[in-house]
Please model this.
Amino acid sequence: MITIGFPTAIDSTPHAQIVLVGPDMALSAAAAAIDTASAGQLRQALTTARFDGEAGSIVEIIAPAGVAATRVLAIGCGPADKANAAQFEKLGGAIAARLQTSGETRASVDLSGVTAALPLAGAAAHLGHGAMLRSYRFDKYRTTMKAKAKPTLEALDIVGVPGADVYHANLAAIAAGVARTRDLVSEPANIIYPESFVESARSLADLGVELTVLGEPEMKALGMGALLGVAQGSVRAPRLLAMRWNGTGNPDAKPVVFVGKGVTFDTGGISIKPAANMEDMKWDMGGAGAVTGAMHALAARKAKAHVIGVVGLVENMPDGNAQRPGDVVTSMNGQTIEVINTDAEGRLVLCDAIWWAQEQFNPEVVIDLATLTGAIIISLGHEYGGMFANDDGLAKQLKTAGETSGERLWRMPIGDAYDGLIDSAIADMKNVGPREGGSVTAAQFIKRFVKPGVKWAHLDIAGMVWAAKPGAVFDKGATGYGVRLLDRFIAENYEA
Ligand code: BES
Ligand code: MN
Ligand code: ZN
Model:
């Protein structure tokens, strides 16, 4: 990721200079200065390009005459009243995407006198945040990249805005959490498996996060038959990892618990998946990745809240020792489950992880995140995560956090009529319902493991953790979805 700085003046060595322009050729002070210095070249370029000031649109002048810059980028900032945090992140993202492999190593953007729908210091920090997030890359396995394809941009300076550093410190912590999640999600399953996932999380201790790890013997002793049934077909041993951050100063504060599905690879097990796109199932630990990245963000910015992240880590493989369709397993709370389809494994992992988390931490709120069903992608595509909740207040808080973070959620229904669809002929429940409403019956299954009085939301993020094409603040690949959502949820509801 690139580095963001807030110097008091633009560096005099030539580099890429960026200026903002609104609709109707509303040149910012810096844009007007460059237009004058270049004898009207900027305006002329904008007119020629049919530039309309749309947020994130860019007109580029290479080696402009009369200006000591390697190039000038005029970027549309949209109407001032719509220029909120998300809009500035989009601008930062567009700048990073355009310059990342341009050959430029340094860029500056002058925001002097710019008007926005939030304090300019915050706007500047969010522009930097968008640039950081968008410039993340996962290049570690590329050994033959052509020089021209390699990223060159190292730093973006934002000038003309005093006081942005304080906002930036928090946002940089969040960006680091997002990067951690993207690393975990991008890594293939021969590198990230339950044990190595835990090892990678150990560095959270440096931020003050307390780690607890359960191995197979401990989980067996606790009776986590559902989670262990999924794990038994793999040579990779399962793990349950808890990450605790208490920034309240009160050791007795009731925690919020996040629970993540951490299936480090999902072949489907004996109910094996088709070969096409099975490689995608390396990111079936995206819920666990989001929870881990959120814990990083919260600890790194020293959030004044008590939050615990729990991730259930298993690999779902077919094997001589794998569980069979029709097997009956007993979960930690004693309920029995007929495993009709070994590919509906996420709920089996979550039910034991959620039950353990409630027993262990007595939380007020439990929010689980999981790449749980293909059906949620059929319902919502890649625009919203699916939210199921037993509490309207919690649902509203999450929806709002989704809007402010840009990681949006759409509420889905739950109810008794759906619940009956997972009744089993020989056990307390079966792990799949009919094809119709597949995301809802998955949620109903999890709900059977939520204790009375606990506020609970289940976020099915199967459509959100991996992107086939770039977005405003991510390239194609791992998005890091969930980190900014959970961070905002805590900031807006527990730190006020
Ligand atoms: N990890 C998958 C869900 C998934 C599918 C995520 C595609 C992302 C893309 C999950 O474990 C699964 O296999 N779910 C099944 C459930 C079915 C067997 C009831 C599904 O969605 O097909
Ligand atoms: Mn599956
Ligand atoms: Zn899965």
